[in-house]
Amino acid sequence: MNKVNNRTILIAGPTGSGKSNLAIKIAQKCKGIIINADSMQIYKQLSIVTARPSIEDEANTPHFLYGNVDANKRYSAGDWLESAKDIITFTEKLDLVTVIVGGTGLYFDSLFGSLSNIPGISDKIRKKWLGIKNDMGSSYLYQQLLQLDPAVAASLNPNDSNRIIRALEVFEETGISIQEWRRSSGDKVIPSHNSVRIFLNPNKDCLHLNIRNRTNRMLQIDCIQEIEELIKNNISDEFPIMKAIGVSQLSALIDGKFNKQEAIDSINLLTKRYAKRQLTWARKKMVDWEWIDPVDLRVENILSKIAQ
């Protein structure tokens, strides 16, 4: 067993950069555990479409926060942070290395105190605003926000119902603008000096090839059945899982609106655009991380950093 200090390894990168495989290799080398930091892999449904680690990988190495949320539930960055805190505290007591891996930048950001301490929203208030949206539409919601919190309304797209609902929920629950809450920051869960932070940055051609291969594998492992099960459950389009790349494209394939190649091309295009957004975000927020081309990656080099 590799001798390591009680530290945390953070692995980020765009979709298709090889984050999960690296996390598994590191966790196995140092007998550590893995925490998911991907906002779509938290859901029980769509394990294939969201490219979750295989059942075998999850059985061989302890994985946490994968498939732990139902599709018809909302799960915020704050919810994730609270869950991650509990696991990190547990692993520290056992002197285990924690590998946190994923592509959701806001999750990583929250570990360093970026999230405000907004209280939880009651189910009653959540259901109220979602019901109003379903009955009256996004434009009505936006008008409500304009009256209650005009400054926040002015900063939002009138068609962005998710953000509008969030602002309305926070205002009703707390009586304080979400803008005010965001000016305050939370506590740091992980001191930056006590973590190894890796950002995988493959060259563009390799990344696009990986994305195409990922989509092809997805279609080969019968992801259609996952989409059919999701459709049977009548999940509202308002829930985040319905916005996962692949859901609308494969639904269109099932309905005969797309042929197989059209679905593949659309998934590839949207995934490339998403990877580009991830990189843009990281260039602003993760400048002090170690950016590594996976081609140059050596697991032992990372382990040596942990042991320092």
Tell me about this structure.
With 308 residues, this protein is of the alpha/beta class. It has helices spanning 19-29, 55-60, 77-93, 105-111, 123-136, 138-148, 150-154, 161-174, 178-183, 204-220, 223-232, 247-254, 260-285, 299-307; strands at 8-12, 33-36, 63-64, 98-101, 195-200, 290-292. It folds into two domains: 8-115 and 186-307, P-loop containing nucleotide triphosphate hydrolases (Rossmann fold); 123-183, Orthogonal Bundle (Histone, subunit A). It contains 14 helices and six strands. Helix 5 (123-136) packs across helix 8 (161-174). The longest helix is centred in the last third of the chain and has 26 residues, at 260-285. It is globular and about 55 Å long. Residues 1-6 have low confidence and may be disordered.
Q: What is the first-to-last residue Cα distance?
A: 16 Å
Q: Tell me the structural class.
A: alpha/beta
Unreliable stretches: 1-6
In total, the number of strands is: 6
* Overall CATH architecture of the largest domain: 3-Layer(aba) Sandwich
Q: What overall geometry do the principal axes of the alpha carbons give?
A: globular
Q: How confident overall, as mean pLDDT?
A: 88
CATH class of the largest domain: Alpha Beta
Query: What is Rg?
Result: 20 Å
Query: Please, how many domains?
Result: 2
CATH topology of the largest domain: Rossmann fold
Helix content: 40-55%
Helices, by number, come to: 14
Q: Please list the strands of the largest sheet in the order they lie side by side.
A: 3-2-4-1-5-6
Q: Determine the strand fraction and express it as a percent band.
A: 5-15%
